[in-house]
Design a protein that fits this description.
CATH architecture: Up-down Bundle
Number of helices: 5
Radius of gyration: 20 Å
Number of strands: 2
Largest sheet: 2 strands, antiparallel
Order of helices and strands: EEHHHHH
Strand order of the largest sheet: 1-2
Distance between the termini: 48 Å
Number of domains: 1
CATH class: Mainly Alpha
Length: 162
């Protein structure tokens, strides 16, 4: 996998898929966990969305490792990488439990106690996944922007001549 596309780190591009798809999966899985009608109508779509989000995570971590290998090692980068490595466990768990919830809900003979248990697990994994995405994003922003000095806006071209 290339580390850069048109001079931009591939990680920066791929991570946006994770930043969008994981929270969207979190909202969708919580919806099907607490609303049985939505589960019956949209359950498999939500499972598919969560599967795509799950697939994007190793792509983001792999591209992040490629970028990390080209940067000076810092504590902030190491912390970001450590947090990023944990996300797959949570989102993959969310995928498995959401799949089980939708699958068992479609069975002709339902076990009454199973749906509430799986729903609670879905909500718990969704919350943990959402919190982890925020933690990873915050640590990545700190790693990228700590020490950057901002200046007042500069006038360029015709504006400077006025």
């Amino acid at each position: 996998m290339p580390a850069f596309i048109a001079g931009l780190p591939l990680h920066v591009l791929i991570v946006h898929a994770v930043v969008v798809l994981v929270p969207l999966s979190v909202l969708a899985t919580v919806t099907i966990a607490v609303w049985p009608a939505a589960r019956r109508r949209f359950g498999w779509i939500v499972v598919g969305l969560t599967a795509v989000a799950t697939i994007c995570i190793p792509l983001a971590t792999s591209s992040g490792e490629d970028l990390r290998d080209r940067l000076a090692s810092t504590d902030l980068i190491r912390q970001h990488a450590h947090l990023g490595d944990q996300l797959l466990v949570f989102v993959a768990g969310l995928l498995v439990v959401a799949f089980a919830l939708v699958w068992f809900d479609r069975r002709p003979v339902r076990i009454k106690a199973l749906a509430p248990i799986l729903s609670v697990l879905v909500v718990a994994l969704a919350v943990v996944s959402a919190v982890q995405v925020v933690r990873i994003g915050d640590s990545g922003a700190r790693a990228a922007w700590t020490g950057v000095q901002y200046t007042a806006p500069q006038r360029h071209g015709d504006e400077a001549a006025k």
